[in-house]
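Each record in this resource describes a single protein on a pair of labelled lines. An example record follows, reproduced without changes.
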Amino acid sequence: MNLYTSLTLRYLKENKKRTIVTIIGIILSTALICGIGNIYSSFMDYQMRETIKDRGSFYASFYDVKKENIDYISKAAGVDKYAISKELGYANIGESSLLKIKQYDKVAMEGFQVSLKEGKLPTNKNEIVISENNKNVLDKVYKIGDEIKLSVGERASDGKEELNDWAVVKDEYIKNPEEKIFKVVGIMNSPRYEYNNDITMGISYIDLAEVYDNENINISITVKNPKDIYALAPELAENAKMEQKTDSNGAKYYNIEYNEGLLRLLGASGYNNIRESLGSIIMLVTSLVIVCTIATVYNAFSISISERKKQFGILNSIGATNSQIMKLVFTEGILVSIIAIPIGLLSGTVAMDIVFKVIQNLFSESFIAEMDLRVVYDPSIMILSTVVVLITIFISVILPAYTAAKISPLDAIKNSGGYKIGKVKNSKLVKLLLKTEGELAYKNLRRNKKKFRITLFSLIISVVIFVAFSGFMTLFLKAETVRSGQMTHDMYMSTRSEITKEQSDNIRKELNDIKGINNYSEQTHGFNFNLDLNENNINKDNKETILNSLGSEEVNGVYQSYNNGLFLPGDKSIKNLNLTSGSFDKDTAIKEMGVILVNKAYYESPGKKGAIDMTSYKVGDNIEVYTTNYDEDGNEIKDDVYKLKIMGTTEDILTGKNSYNYMGIQLITYDEVGEKLGLDIIKNEFSIDSNKTEETRVLVKKLSEKYDLNFTDEAEESMAARHSFMAMQVFVYGFVSVISLVSITNIVNTISTNINLRKRELAIIKSIGVTPGGFNKMIYLESFLYGVLSLLYGVPLGIGLCVLMNKMLGNVIEFGLVLPWPAVGVSIIGIFVITFIASYIPMKKINKENIIENIRQESI
């Protein structure tokens, strides 16, 4: 062991507390940087697995391809793997249940995640595996070995209601049925795309050799380079002589479906701005962690240099060179790094593993338990984290090492450097507000500007980090809500038949009597109306986005907005709305034709989506809406013009809807206002938000049967969405907790060490007659002044970074400016509490020590 290492180890051992605090700071910072990498890689892995479970592992699927043309796709250059499938049709089993049958070849079964619970996979067209959900759907529970005879065909209905896989409607039937007999050879786990208990899945086998040449089938592919898929797929479709279709805008397209979610995770999405924006935000967040680490480590080494000034001066006086002094400081940095970095890497990885396990245990009986969260141990993250921390420590040590090398032997031995000689400028405001002790505290801070700035910088960084990180996490949760929408209901009752007013009143009364129902809306689909937008009423901040999305031409400075809705959700739903402005009294609303304005509008463009303010209307404004019709010459004319008064505004999403109107406003009012407008009010749908208990769900289902309504139970989906969001919150606030620990460590280390280094100075102040109460007050006021100054600088900087991240995220998801006021409040309270505690501990120790010994401490 050489002299430098020996001296450094000796110093580290003699100052165990400071060494431990420094090591803890580096450990937390390393764990945080490693944790960011682990979170990123683990969630990428989770999303990849979840996306494959939902949509399969293929990059693109071609629908309705003639069997004779399949080779143009399957054998094309660049295609890596392909699978054959076919939609066989539906079979009606029971009064209100369907079996949906698909045919897959072996590769498709693997790629589309057909997971067996028991039995085997089908190997010919007469064998089938049925979802385990069949016990909830079919009149008879089918077991392995059973033969089932089915009439398989297309779904059809005499009504106007759209048929989809969400529910079975009452009057639908199977069109063009074909008798088929299958043998059940396996039971599979319920696939993700099995939406509803009314419909269950069955998978049979398809053999390409048995398919007729002119028969249409589907082919799904992966390619060697995922980024080539968007250019390659249309070429393959053209070569395979696929039929071109025309959309509503007259554009030609092939029936190709891209697995956009998987391609985005593979970095092959056409929406590059998503990756760029998220990459920029991750870089900014990581930079904040690095700055916090630099502040913590730099502060620790600066304090260390200040404390050892005499030691460095003596070494200089006996011939030590500047490079040798710097080497001592760098050796200290290397030694604490050797201890802290491995522990930090291990902590960051183990902590994430524990968090995943805790989340799954907390939600062991919910959807979260099935999320299969796992930590991905990526060596590159460990290496990158180590390199980042080492560079950070090196940057943190350079300036203190240079400062140590420059110390003059005479100044160091006298220990006179750093203090301001002469009169220190007083603050009249401080003297007025904080009296004599406050004035003394202020002068103490100003005496050594360098120490003051180092300490203040460290505290400012802690405030900035906390506010910025908390703001980022708030933005993240808000963005996720906008991206995925909100699940506002868990049960739904509807019918296409007209419900009489008496029936509607009875249903409403019985719903009100059921305990466990939080809210319900009596109308999910509103009355559509048009709205004229111009310079006076369009939201100026979002003007460009709005005009680009409306799709209407300007006529005399006016743009038509088409996708607006007037909703009559019922008294209970209106009563539960949270108004952001105004009030909505029923009698006044009926008298003045009053409405509540939902000014937020949802929009989506390639690579971007969001919720924005649509208009500049406010409470008290009158709004004119209308429907359109056509005259004899085919010209569009205004019809049914309504003049309404805005009495309140809200940002709530109505029960039964999961987002705002697409580029259109919503108006909400009472049924009586709708009647005065002459609207044909039919209450034939009820969206219900409940406590999701089995008892409540059974009562609502019985009510739907009583009035012959279609019933859809979406409680599990609602709970899954809520638990998924809760899991996200656990991650978010766990992340904020770790960064808070780093900040608290930094503050405690800074304040307590700053007081300990001034033992002689404080002892002199006590020796000239300052009372114990006055002395304590002075120390507390020093911490108070540090807190005030750090907040004055730190809060605006933290908010500024939040605004910057908001703008970055706005390139992908736009939802307006969200400022972290709760985090600001916590930081204001926290900074004073932490600085008080950090001052109290060393002050209590100093009060017990001998004044004479402390005065002699640095003068020997």
Q: What stands out?
A: The longest helix spans residues 715-756. Residues 175 and 535 are 53 Å apart (CA to CA).
